[in-house]
Amino acid sequence: MLIETETTPNPATLKFLPGRTVMEAGTRDFADPEEAEASPLADALFGLGDVTGVFFGSDFISVTAAPGTDWTVLRPEVLATLLDHYSGGMPLFHPSAGNGIAVPPEEDELPLDDPADEEIVEQIKELIDTRVRPAVAGDGGDIVYRGFQRGVVYLRMQGACAGCPSSTATLKMGIEQLLKHYVPEVTEVRAAGA
User: Fold this and answer.
1) Residue 152 contacts by C-beta under 8 Å, 6 or more apart in sequence?
2) Which residue, among 56, 62, 59, has the nearest Cα to 20 in the 3D structure?
């Protein structure tokens, strides 16, 4: 089995492509070892010690290393863990975890969408799904819509994009400009809490 490795805009994160489907639907972000307990693979990756984040996309796994970690040492360990997992035919999630698709936790500080904005929200979501998410997935991450209120779109970056030095520029210069162009009601894009 050949597993390809790609760099991402986030120097702390590498993207691993096992050459097969990772998630049948959706994505899953693991920010700590407790969350990773739902997945034998994520749990094993966190068990390497220098891993601070694991993200499952449709056909890739992004792994984020702790500050100061040497990827020349960690990369072979991650590859060995991935090979062991896939060659052993292990499930991606424990049976008790269901399909593993995470529903973002409710966050009190985020606004609720106004039912009067339903058409605007649908336009925003469609643009994110068709124009933004594929590009962000190419960089080893995902972006999740979290709300729209008074012209402000709230989005959460995941995977390689969370904590990436260029994530603010991506939100402001890329996504905000795109949404403002196609949806005049959008005045700003802000990062939502994790």
Assistant:
1) 111, 186, 187, 188, 189, 190
2) 59
Hunting for tokens 């994505």 — which residue is that?
Answer: 27
pLDDT per position as a tens digit, 47-79: 999 999 999 998 999 999 999 999 999 999 999
Give CA–CA dist 35/54, Å, rounded: 10
Q: Which helix (H) or strand (E) holds 51?
A: strand 51-56
Q: What are phi and psi of 193, to 5 degrees?
A: -60, 160
Distance CA 58, CA 87 (A): 19
Evaluate whether 64 touches 12 at the Cβ level (below 8 Å): yes
Report d(CA 151, CA 42) in Å as an integer: 37
Does the model's pTM come out above 0.90? Answer: no
> C-alpha angle with apex 74: 22 to 55, nearest 5 degrees?
30
Structure tokens at 52: 């601070």
Rounded to whole angstroms, how far apart are CA atoms 90 and 84? 9
For residue 72, give the 3-state DSSP assignment.
helix
Residues in the chain: 194
